[in-house]
Amino acid sequence: MTAFELVGESGWNNVVSVIKSSKKSEDDEELEEVEEEEEEEEEEEEEKGEEKGEEMEEDVDDEKSWEKVDNEKEEMESEITIQPPQVPPVDQSTSMRNLRESLSKINSAFSVSGEIYVDKNEPLVVFFDTDKDNKQSKGGAHRMEFPLTDSTIINKLVEACSPASFGFKTETVLNLEYRQALKIDSSNFLTSFDVYRNGIVDVISKTLVSNAPVCAELHKLNVYGPGGFFKPHVDTPLTTDMFGSLVVCLPAKFEGGVLRVTKDELTKRFDWGRTCIDENNGDQYVQWVAFFSDCPHDITPVTSGHRITLTYNLYKRSPNEVLSPQIDVQDFSFYRELKASLMNPNFFNSGAIFGFHCQHSYQSVEFDMLKGNDMVVFQAAVHCGLNVYLKSIVDGYGDSFIGNVSEEGNGGQYESKDKFIEESFDVVRVRDDRITWFGSRAGKKSHAYLHYGNEASISHVYSSVVLVVEVPSFKQRIKALTVAE
Fold it and tell me: Does the domain formed by 111-316 have CATH 2.40.360?
């Protein structure tokens, strides 16, 4: 069993109790004394010009060396052989600096794109009927083939469409100042384009969700005519297992209408109007991109022609499969750096509690829905044998908390409501100085767009999430790390 499977709410309660305790543990006091004596020893070694080396003290009174610690371990666990590092372990500040640097270099994909050639002998077909929401359009079914042989069919497609609304918080809104587009619901059209047969779903699975099985559900057909656009928004999570969106652009002449997908400071542009048709030989291509649905994205105004797209919602078919055997966390430098730090006796010798701010927002606080960099951190911690907790950040009452807050209750007997929350529920403050934090809270910039979605949502909304990692003392964790090897 993996570490996270062994941790229940009782484990989180223990973590909260440790964090809330204002009294320093005896291990903390011993660690401070050990560090002071180590500093004195290092100064003496420099003055005498002796060979560099560091000794780890297990107890202040008897000053055990690395070799004594190893011998004691062999007596306690004869089947386990612990080899001391070949080089003197670095100090804690250096380990922390290296760990933070490796964390900043994690660069998991938040989108994946491609193109597919459209064979004239095997045209891509779209059958569409009048959108039932459009009372003005005329009835009748129509057939639309790509490559287009009759451009007038686009006029019939536009006629069959109805205005595309969007979601603002829990309401469905039609606001032409925020979005100008047309749509046909999936119940009113069919297409011969198969995202499975064309290999798109396989690429999404490998690139975005570590080979987890993916289901692509056809959602809508959208048309952006001249002047059409969509301001920054995120795609509304319709279920707890929805992780992304797929946009397929059909080959039709248009200009503008650039899709821009943003994650943190990085923005990817998809100018399909320039690439869907090869001007030299007339070859036509279907362009596509899949991305995590919490990434803000927008569509610039179309200046000419019609931008025609198929949109799909992406789901994990087997969301409970968190640690895939095909995932090799040793490919990630962060895992190697974390493991090296944990093997270092100078690194939080008495243990610590780490808080990793997740870089994506989530509608479901579940390990199996972690995305991108967040999944890398989770995998690394679990494969190092650490207990991991996934908790939402709850804002309110003048502060932010992580943990289990389900109801307000009666806070009248407390000096403040935030004091009531902290003492009444299994929560801790985000700004608690007993948590060693990594990264910054996700989506402070993107959260401005979380109120705007492609659909309205009542039951599922995005929130900021943190990974809380329990780091045992060196004496406790060294056994697990050695066994893992």
Answer: no
